[in-house]
Amino acid sequence: MPPAPDPFAQADTHDLVIRAEPASVRAALRCVTASPPVVDLAPDLRSTVELVLAEVLNNVAEHAYADLEGHVAVTVALHPGALWCEVVDEGASMPGGFLPEGRLPQTDLPGTDLPEGGFGWHLIRSMTRDLQYRRRRGTNRLNFLIPLVEDA
Fold it and tell me: Coil, strand or helix: which one is 122?
């Protein structure tokens, strides 16, 4: 599956296609954060990019493909004031065809154990802007911006 055309053709971009499985996700994160345009960002912004992409790619591997094999295309492009990201896969669609709301799980329950899941979409939503999901012809596309400057 080739990455989608870059809407910011003048921008520095990085494209890759990986297998949707944990080892490939880890390798992809190392590759993306060590390559332009991400490598040129400040360390805290590189960490944000790595965290968001880790959550998204691990969700694709764990939920969209579940026990099936498949590939994921990732594109990152530098855009004025933001890093544009697109993740494309041919796995299962989002439940109901929509992105999860990203509500935090309840953590004030008796006992000391925190819930195992439920934090990822909250992190993704809080660290990105213009988050968009669509499924078309058996393909999932997730696009978002990671701001490179503080909101005023």
Answer: helix
Rounded Cα distance between 34 and 39, Å, is 5
Residue 144 CB coordination number (10 Å): 21
Spatial separation of the C-alpha atoms in residues 103 and 47, rounded to whole Å: 22
pTM over 0.85: no
Q: Kind and range of the H or E element at 53?
A: helix 43-59
b/e code 57-88 from CB counts within 10 Å (16+ = b): bbbbbbebbeeeebbbbbbbbbbeebbbbbbb
What is the number of H-type helices and E-type strands within the chain? 3, 5
pLDDT, one tens digit per residue, over 45-82 is: 999 999 999 999 999 999 999 989 999 999 999 989 99
- The span from the CA of 124 to the CA of 17, in Å, is 21
pLDDT in tens, 13-33: 899 999 999 999 999 999 999
Reading the block at residue 90, the tokens are 């041919």
Q: For residue 135, what are its two tokens?
A: 């499924």
Q: How far does Cα 106 stand from its chain's mean position?
A: 24
Rounded CA separation 79/11 (Å): 6
Instruction: Give the percent of the chain with pLDDT over 90.
Output: 70
